[in-house]
Amino acid sequence: MDLTYFRTFREVARRKSFTRAAEELGYAQSSITMQIQKLEREYGVPLFERYGRQLRLTPPGESLLVITQQLLELYDQSKEMIANQVSGTLTIGTINSLAAYYLPPFLHKLKQLYPGLNIQLYPDSEASILTKVKEGDYDIGLLLDQYPADPTLSCTSVREEQLVFVAPLDHPLTQQSDIQLADLGNTEFIVTEEGCIYRGKFERLLKDNAVALQIGFELGNVEAIKQCVMSGLGIALLPRITVANELTIGKLAQLPFTHNQLSMDLQLVLHPKKWMSQPLQAFIQLLTNQPAE
Fold it and tell me: Is 267:158 a contact under the CB 8 Å cutoff?
């Protein structure tokens, strides 16, 4: 069986879509369908099933995916060791804020080092990243969390990342020289979606201090949150890296409030038995060798 079929199967499983897999691999959708059908005939079982518009793996498909990931990783390893060729695919799971505001320059440097490398970046939730690193879906994960994010994984802290409160320039709280937690209960917040690690930290802090959280808007996109704050719709708690530019040029104001519970570690996570390809080693080195800010 051609390894191409297994790569296609893995991509469909990751994307949960024949169409998106075809776009990523540069094939016609009919070619994707044909390859999956051939695999299903080969194994004599259906590998995917549909529930409405949702595509998901069958139990035999889940078992084959585990084997496929091991097979393709061994193949890439053999090429690198025997033919000294550095290509293949590097899959990175990360949260949206890091994908948009932190990783692009590192990915650019990595691509310069390994032009033949296929880099796949998957924005995901923190919990899903940890699960998929454990299961081998992601070669590496990057997230913001308390260190270590998961003691069963190899976790490396890259740097501390502060969470900051940002407000429109004319917000009343920007006129105060000292802000207490109680002051934050008197204004509306624009928050990230439920399940976000730093939203959860903030909610626990308020609850522990008997301060109510007033939610005006709940948005799943950091850029949308920033635009709403600039429009005067409320204040927000975000990683400083996501608002550094707006603070520098004066489009947002940072409120004078800090708390030791509102800092997180930007960390990378790996499976402890993960094979370290040259590109993966180089990527880790790029991330961990940065000067402290």
Answer: yes
What is the tens place of the pLDDT at every residue in 160-183?
999 999 999 999 999 998 899 999
Q: How far is CA 129 from each of CA 4, 159, 181, 183, rounded to the nearest angstrom? A: 26, 19, 32, 35
| Residue among 272, 233, 245 nearest 152 (CA) | 272
Determine the length of the chain: 293
The burial class, CB within 10 Å (0-12 / 13-18 / 19+), for 182 is: exposed
Interhelix angle 18-25/29-43, nearest 10 degrees: 110
> What residues pair up with 164 in beta bridges, in sequence order?
238
Helices (H), the chain: 3-15, 18-25, 29-43, 59-78, 96-101, 104-113, 126-135, 181-184, 197-208, 222-230, 240-249, 278-288
Query: Which pTM value belongs to this model?
Result: 0.73
Output the six-digit token pair for 18: 């024949």
Parallel, antiparallel or unpaired: strands 188-191 and 214-218: parallel
Phi, psi of 292 (to 5 degrees): -65, 145
CA dihedral sign, ordered 37, 42, 43, 45: positive
Cα separation, 95 vs 99, in Å, equals 6
- Is the pLDDT at 35 greater than 70, yes or no? yes
For the stretch 82-100, pLDDT in tens is: 656 566 789 999 999 999 9
Q: Is the CB of residue 47 less than 8 Å from the CB of residue 39? A: yes
Three-state secondary structure of 83-152: HCCCCCEEEEEECHHHHHHCCHHHHHHHHHHCCCCEEEEEECCHHHHHHHHHHCCCCEEEEEECCCCCCC
